[in-house]
Amino acid sequence: MLNGLSTTGYRLEIKINFPKLFNLAKPPSLKRSLLLCRPYRSSSFLPSVGELADAISREKHICIRSLDPAPVFQHLALEEWILSFLEEAVDLNNEYRVLLFYVNKPCVVIGRNQLIWNECDPSIITTARRMSGGGAVYHDPGNLNFSLFTPKHLFRRERGIEALRTSLQAEIPASLLRTSTFHDLFLSEKKVSGSAFRIARGCAYHHGTALFCSDLQMLSKALKPKEFPDFFISSMGASKSRRSFVANINDHYPNLKVASIIDGMAKFLGILICLQFCARYPKLSFNWSQFCVASRLEVYENPAHATGMNKHCLMWLSSLLNGSSAIIPNLA
Question: 13-105+140-213+248-301: what CATH class?
Fold first, then answer.
């Protein structure tokens, strides 16, 4: 699990702790509104949507941290909300930069144009589909994720990976680090970071991974696709992931701290230190039900979003894979 975090190196820092659902016997449609904020602590800030939006609008260069492992759907929804807010409410002529760091519970995340059964077995691990392209990746608490949002006219695909590589070079010789044409990062010829991108109307983002101390055995198992009929795969036209040998950064450099990488990336991107945040935003509350509406959390949690199939297709596919006589369903 990632540790060694500090609060230095930022112009403004927000740390989000996602609240947990009550385990109450209520209809599923009501569950998401039954949420409590965690008690306020001096080291954790829990901004509401309005306060988070105000911070982004005021500061322009901002770092957001969500480093308590959370379900992947929450962080995909957070990315979606930030993108939507920047497009709708922020002057896109400004040179803003929003840098988001987050950690997910174990899961596989596939690209928007992929077929899930080409990439993993969704019956053994939580799966989600992101809105950006690229290939399938494994996330767990030993993997640091980052997303860099900028105006579309200032977007450079290499900027985020440059920030990560520069921060790593504080401890790792530059000769051991290599960036591929796909903006992946390799340490001693083993992949430690992958990238994906999304370009929207006026805003774009690059999100990537950084393997620090992930469970590589589980990674290998999770990214092993289920055996699938060849005729079905070939007919889908989905993009496939590029397979690479991977490594953990901490296996080679055990003293390298996540905090130093976060600080280094923020400084590289011009996000400077600022201590006014504590005084300006004391004891904030986090309105999760409001956030859910804004961020399309339900879309990401819906299994049909990850699989690309409705329940009728999934039932047919399940019977096909289990060797039963399968009839293509009538979806009318």
Answer: alpha beta
